[in-house]
Amino acid sequence: MKRNRTLCVLLALLLALSALPAPASAADLFFVAVNDSIPLTLTILPYDAGSTLYVPYQVFDSRPGGVTPSYTQSENSFILFTRSLRLYFDLAENSVTDESGKAYDATVTYRNGVLYLPLSFCAAHFGLKAAMLQSSAGYPVLRFTTGSEVYDDDLFIEKAENLIAYRAGQSDQTQPPDTQPVTPVTQDPQPEQKPDDPPDEPPLPPAVVYLAFADAASMRETMQALESAQLRGAFFLTEQEIRSDPALVRELLASGHRIGLRPEPGAEDLSASLLAANNALDEVILQRSLLVLLPEGADAPVGFCFFTEPAEPLTAQEVASDHENAHLLVCTSDAAETLSVLSAHQADVRMLRETTDAP
After folding, report:
1. Would you give the distance in Å from CA 143 to the centre of its chain?
2. Residue 126 near residue 67 (C-beta atoms within 8 A)
3. Quick one: which of 199, 194, 247 has its CA closest to 220?
4. Measured by CB atoms within 10 angstroms of the end CB, which terminus of the chain is less buried, N or C?
5. What is the pLDDT along the chain (359 residues), one digit of tens a residue?
6. Where in the chain is the domain with CATH 3.20.20.370?
7. Strand partners, 103
8. Contact, 272 vs 287, CB < 8 A?
9. Rounded distance between C-alpha atoms, residue 337 and residue 343, angstroms
10. 131 - beta bridge partners?
């Protein structure tokens, strides 16, 4: 009887262990999103302490809603601030005060020499919403939102899956280190002298990318994504798109974007098609445009500043990785994901203008 009881216990234990999820590489990466972009990938994870979620201070390197981090080693302090708000963390006293001098009970912690901040407390002070999400592969994603986001959490994760998978693949190959840990100090340490170290190689210049947007159906979502990224773009419309939705044209103009023209798909007389589009634009906003986006191989129209859309366009990842050549990137959908990829690679995103040299 005793042997049978022992056997039952062992079987129950094996069943319980088999029900536990297998360890996954998802535990190695932590993504930080701001609205509809993912500017940071970290290898330092958050953790729960009772009812408080603590996050590594590096999450605020993403500057959500304009919140800027500042660490002063000589004063042993860490500050989060905007133009009008501030949280001052005295690391020696483990105290927190705001812009008015009010003190709070919130505390910081340290793990492996890394400074951790209470997420909800910090986000709430700056009017940010913070949500911990998870990708389909199990990667944790901290998403800050400011009210300017285009997608809700579920749709955002769905659209970000490809980028997360790419970042995970890159991390498996390179595993770049995160920024240096913040630790409390009593005096300024002297820098370690390493005279035999080789000089650092100069960093590569950022890739230059000119954005153009086509397809009127997605332009309102594109405008919201650009607003979140504090960018302006060049939007190209056909005569039919202008006449079908004149309100869209006015919204583009009011938001500070450039408005260009495209010929109707399959138009035999490109000049006539562009002239008709310009007449429609003039009727709506009393302005004409010189900017034109043409399909590859089309004859150049007289009197316009034209740019050519590649027949086989490169992806955002490809143009952001080319540090030697400027590229024209034409987007017809998923502008938020495109901007996220460009931001992650710190690409130099520029508006297409009449004076731009064609990439």
Report:
1. 10
2. yes
3. 247
4. N
5. 444 444 444 444 444 434 333 333 445 789 999 998 888 888 889 999 878 999 999 999 888 988 988 877 767 889 999 888 999 999 888 899 999 999 998 889 988 888 999 999 999 999 999 999 999 989 999 999 999 888 899 999 998 888 888 788 776 554 444 444 555 544 444 445 455 555 555 667 788 888 899 989 999 999 998 888 888 889 999 999 999 999 999 999 888 888 999 999 888 898 899 999 999 999 998 888 888 998 887 887 777 888 888 877 778 888 888 888 888 888 888 888 888 888 888 888 888 877 776 56
6. 208-351
7. 97
8. no
9. 10
10. 143
The torsion angles phi and psi of 318, rounded to 5 degrees, stand at -70, -45
Element (H, E) at 14: helix 2-19
pTM: 0.50
Alpha carbons 137 and 104: distance in angstroms, whole number: 38
DSSP secondary structure letters along 23-62: P-GGGG-EEEEETTEEEEEESS--EEETTEEEEEGGGGGG
Looking only at the bridges linking them, the beta strands covering 258-261 and 86-90 are unpaired
Name the CATH topology of 208-351. Answer: TIM Barrel (3.20.20)
Cα angle: 33, vertex 72, 124; to 5 degrees: 40
